[in-house]
Design a protein that fits this description.
- The complex is a heterodimer of chains A (112) and B (117).
- With 112 residues, chain A is mainly beta.
- Chain A has no helices and 11 strands.
- Chain B has strands at 3-5, 10-14, 19-21, 24-26, 32-39, 46-52, 59-61, 64-69, 74-79, 88-96, 106-107, 111-116.
- In chain B, the strands form 3 sheets. In chain B, strands 2, 5, 6, 10, 11 and 12 form a 6-stranded mixed beta sheet that branches. Chain B has a 4-stranded antiparallel beta sheet with strand order 3-9-8-7, with no helix packed on it.
- Classes of the chains: A mainly beta (112), B mainly beta (117).
């Protein structure tokens, strides 16, 4: 059973561009979570999704950030008009049931 | 709101020493889960253990052991006979078990463990 897949592993964007981060959950997992790890900060929850539904987006910045988990295909975290402060590691986790989250390897976003 | 505190920012030990990583948590919920994750230099997050609030039995897995004490709101992690490969950042985390939609992990700030040869 393959683990949680994230791609790309590293992403470089210039200020003002869009960043799209993809997450494929483990087989059979219907819950997806996104977390962000900013330099010098801990891991912070961003959003929790199930197929075609956003369940909890209390950790998402109000502007420029969006997430989806379509019926088919990976979950996407989209950041529009990136700024230097968006540079971070973005982790996706999936779970087969509540209270059990398995993380992917992360996407390191660098905004130049 | 939940809070997880890992007061030890960095710990350095020599190989074969035992080391304990502290974790103290705050929550008003009576039902919750506690976790430890390892983040090696390669950057991924590796799940180590999950423990629910009703199970205070200590757990041992090889060189790893965990001590959960509800009375002191602590969930400490001990590595016995440490090895260089144990060098990593270790995160303690908590999730409340509610019937609602909240499923977010609250992480501590992490402890950087360095094991010297």
């Amino acid at each position: 059973n393959a683990g949680v897949m994230q791609n790309p592993r590293h992403l470089v964007r210039r200020r003002g561009q869009e960043a799209r981060l993809r997450c494929s959950p483990m087989k059979g997992h219907s819950h997806v979570y996104w977390y962000r790890q900013l330099p010098e900060e801990g891991l912070k929850f961003m959003v929790y999704l199930q197929k075609e539904n956003i369940i909890d987006e209390s950790g998402m910045p109000k502007e420029r950030f969006s997430a989806e988990f379509p019926k088919e295909g990976p979950s996407i975290l989209r950041i529009q008009q990136v700024v230097r402060g968006d540079s971070a590691a973005y982790f996706c986790a999936s779970s087969p049931r509540p209270y059990e989250q398995y993380f992917g390897p992360g996407t390191r976003l660098t905004v130049t | 709101a939940q809070k997880v505190t890992q007061a030890q920012t960095e710990i350095s030990v020599v190989e074969k020493e035992d080391v304990t990583l502290d974790c103290v948590y705050e929550t008003r919920d009576t039902t919750y889960y506690l976790f430890w994750y390892k983040q090696p230099p390669s950057g991924e997050l590796v799940f180590l253990i999950r423990r629910n609030s009703f199970d205070e039995q200590n757990e041992i897995s090889g060189r790893y052991s965990w001590n959960f004490q509800k009375s002191t709101s602590s969930f400490n992690f001990t590595i016995t006979a440490s090895q260089v490969v144990d060098s990593a950042v270790y995160f303690c985390a908590l999730i409340k078990a509610s019937s609602g939609s909240a499923r977010q992990l609250t992480f501590g700030s992490g402890t950087q463990l360095t094991v010297l040869p």
